[in-house]
Amino acid sequence: MPRRVVITGLGVLAPNGKGKEEFWQATIAGRSGVRRISRFDAGRLSTQIAGEISDFDPETFGLTPQEYMDLGRGTQFALAAANLALQDAGLTNTLSEEERDATGVYMGSAMTSVEEAEHLWVQFTDGGVHSPRLTNKSEFISATPLMTHAPAAAIAVHHRLHGPCTSFTTACSAGADAIGQAFWTIQEGYADRMLAGGCDSAITCVGINVFSVIGALSTRNNEPEKASRPYDNERDGFVMAEGAAVLLLEERDAALARNAHIYAEIIGFASNSNAHHMTSLPEDGAPLQQLLQQIMYEANIAQPDYINAHGSSTLPNERAETAAYKAVFGNAVYHIPISATKSMIGHTQGAASAIEALVTALVLEHQLLPPTINQQFPDPVCDLDYVPNVARSAVVNVALTHSSGFGGVNTALLFARPDWRDTQR
What we know:
By secondary structure, the protein is α/β, with parallel strands linked by helices. It has helices spanning about 20-30, 65-70, 75-90, 95-100, 115-125, 135-140, 150-160, 175-185, 205-210, 250-255, 285-300, 315-330, 340-345, 350-365, 420-425, and strands at about 5-15, 15-20, 35, 50, 105-110, 165-170, 195-200, 245-250, 265-275, 305-310, 340, 370, 390-395, 400-405, 410-415. It has two domains: about 5-255, Thiolase/Chalcone synthase (Peroxisomal Thiolase, Chain A, domain 1), CATH 3.40.47; about 270-420, Thiolase/Chalcone synthase (Peroxisomal Thiolase, Chain A, domain 1).
């Protein structure tokens, strides 16, 4: 019999709030974290806006000075979010050596540290001139922030966690894949608790320009807070953002034994591939249809009470999502509230699906639906209930969050209120 898995700790850093409470209050208020770029001079770029995290003090979030020196910005966010999750769960500095052996870390990211890559390229090539000058071991070690495994490894090292430690690089689905795989790991008894989530920070000249030149980013530079507008007919691309979210997952009986606060129980995880295109879903959302059918079947439910959607502010993706919802849920879909967190924070790449999972857990906790902001001119093809502009109360027993990543990966997680499964028996 698979073990039951619950969420007992939440840690997040996002453009509109650092820490669970600040972030949740901003999200419920519909407050955007998108601004004009301040981290570098973006004046020459067509896109000059992003979802930056401002006033980030690593020491405030438990990082040591050495970690601040050694780790890239995205990995710093990951470690800070993990520290917050453990603190929220009441497990900071309380795990025994035996418990550390049964605790692991799974983290997802879409991109290595672009900022560090730019810095090291200049450092190792004398300002960009191709004359390699890597001469000693200390300089080699300084390149470790470029490792895709850095976020998971940094968390494991900081907290001396000896359980499974793995990284996922499935683009925008990476954070959710990390959470889902951690769920399976605990279910099957390979760990008792897991820190799982995602992180990314790619707000640099290269990071922005790579997506800008292919026309993927919004250029609403004079109205940054209105730039990310999922399901709106005037959307003109997504908004690059940075951040991290980490969830602490525990085996349910162990969590109950220590009287832990439980936000939600994970009751399903599914992943598949479009096998269609590197950056878009088929128009009918067929692989997403299959994914949603699979996760509903496994959980033995007809439909969720709420969906936190991928909703990236891109027309093809959102029309395909809408088509998939209609195909799977039929006319009932018009009564399922759907919201897109990216409307308020932009697209945080590998962190996005983890942040959205965290939001979904908080929806179950508070029975409150966050809005999809910037719903001024609804896309007539996307005609569902996207909780436009204003949060509202609702009865939510089961909530779905799903993501789609470059390369064609689709991932879904299904959460339930802590006691919901027991009432269904």
